[in-house]
Design brief:
Largest sheet: 5 strands, mixed
Radius of gyration: 17 Å
Helix content: 40-55%
Strand order of the largest sheet: 1-2-5-3-4
Number of strands: 5
Length: 239
């Protein structure tokens, strides 16, 4: 895996998606597309560091209520913030469910990822349309934790560039350690709710299973469902 973490106090899951090996022996370009958790807790120093990235567009996958409870600290370079709300599973509503057990919690997460692939195609179609506009680059996209809604978006972006699936999954799994401090109570307090605060291979695999079984594989899914111009994306985001 690449050493792609961006050190910004208050956004532990902020990282550059560049550097990964892509199609045709190329690599994903750096300093163009970033994934992150929310920007609410950015310290002043953290915000100054993000300013240096020159981000033009922020894409926020959170719902309106999530954004109101934790409004982003937006870098001064940003020209537009686009909200594309994805409400897949309302995960935190399960946190206080006394009937939960570890198996049920993992089942909830698997269902969330299936929904991301099948039910929220218009949202991810809009995301890729924003990426296709050079005026929006560099672009940062995020949700609250930067692991589920954002994790699926990152997986699709890297897949569009021809990054091998094991590498895509490896990038996805980096959120485990990046979020440990942010969600230490949820991760360490109860094994039953732990999957709500972390990522596991089975979760992203569930999304890929839907893509492979119902949509003919990831390139077909990207092209036909998300309307991604794969050759154009590879020209712009690999070198």
């Amino acid at each position: 895996m690449t050493d792609n973490r961006i050190v910004a106090e208050g956004a532990p899951n902020l990282r550059d998606l560049g550097g990964y090996p892509a199609a045709d022996g190329k690599r994903v370009v750096c300093r163009q597309v970033y994934r992150s958790d929310d920007l609410y807790d950015l310290s002043d120093d953290g915000l100054a560091g993000v300013d240096e990235l020159g981000i033009c567009c922020v894409v926020d996958f959170r719902t309106r209520n999530e954004a109101l409870l934790a409004p982003d600290r937006v870098p001064s370079t940003v020209k537009q913030t686009v909200t594309i709300p994805i409400d897949a599973g309302r995960l935190m509503t399960h946190y206080y469910d006394e009937t939960l057990n570890a198996r049920k919690t993992r089942g909830i997460m698997v269902s969330v990822y299936r929904a991301l692939a099948s039910d929220f195609q218009p949202a991810y179609r809009q995301f890729f349309a924003l990426l296709a506009d050079p005026e929006n680059i560099p672009l940062l996209f995020h949700c609250t934790a930067g692991k589920d809604r954002t994790g699926f978006a990152a997986a699709m972006f890297l897949s569009a560039l021809g990054v091998e699936r094991d590498v895509v999954v490896g990038d996805y799994l980096l959120s485990v350690e990046r979020l440990r401090e942010k969600y230490v109570e949820g991760v360490d307090y109860d094994e039953t709710t732990k999957p709500l605060f972390q990522v596991e291979p089975a979760f992203i695999d569930a999304a890929f299973d839907i893509i492979d079984s119902q949509y003919g594989g990831v390139e077909s899914y990207l092209t036909n469902q998300l309307h991604v111009d794969i050759p154009l994306f590879r020209q712009r985001f690999t070198e």
